[in-house]
């Protein structure tokens, strides 16, 4: 196996210590401000992986185990969750903050992302709490609070340069995904539609909810449209409702994710930015 190590602070002594656990030499494959190392031909075992994963997490180092080094050009689609993945916030939590209800809504969001609450129910409950809010609050959240996650711009630039199509698929709302699609030049976007009547939120979603199954179906539909296999897709997410679409991908990436998602993803980026996929796919 190849073991790819990444660190924001480039602690060479910690990298050397991890490499010694793998009985390997760490080759520096850093590029620009991305600090990365490759340990090639590591004699993989489940016990060694558990040891190194724990050591890396404790040292704030990201590690990725790959049977061979895949190339960015092997993939044709990048599908991304939006909230807490492509962007740093949960939009619905910030909308709720305009109503003074952020703690209540955020608690439901957190439970859903951990997989403790069924997503349709969680979204219905959270949106209902927004009833009566002026729709202008959505623009305020977009203007004042929405920020891209670290590394998003450089990741998207590299992905586009490689000719890979991009899909933003979210359990959030079209108000935000449509704007992100236009601003970032993404190819596809799919999310929920908030009902607005007379300039106010009604507390309802229009149409079917974009839940875990619909996220997976969306990835598969776009792959079919592009005439590619789902194995040619990279899927990035952070919550339990991303697991289904991550499960059909050729490479699944957990970004700053909940434990249940980290455990099942091909790669977990806990500390570096979204562009942490680039050394892995070099």
TrEMBL record:
Keyword check for Metal-binding: yes
Listed Pfam families: Hydrolase (PF00702)
The enzyme's E.C. designation: 3.1.3.3
Signal peptide extent: none
Entry keywords, A to Z: Amino-acid biosynthesis, Hydrolase, Magnesium, Metal-binding, Serine biosynthesis
Catalytic reactions of this protein: O-phospho-D-serine + H2O = D-serine + phosphate; O-phospho-L-serine + H2O = L-serine + phosphate
UniProt pathway: Amino-acid biosynthesis; L-serine biosynthesis; L-serine from 3-phospho-D-glycerate: step 3/3
Cofactors demanded by this protein: Mg(2+)
InterPro entries, alphabetized: HAD-like_SerB, HAD-like_sf, HAD_sf, PSP
Enzymatic class: hydrolase
Keyword field contains Calcium: no
Family annotation (NCBIfam families): HAD-SF-IB, serB
Family: Belongs to the HAD-like hydrolase superfamily. SerB family.
Name of this chain's protein: Phosphoserine phosphatase
Organism: Collimonas pratensis
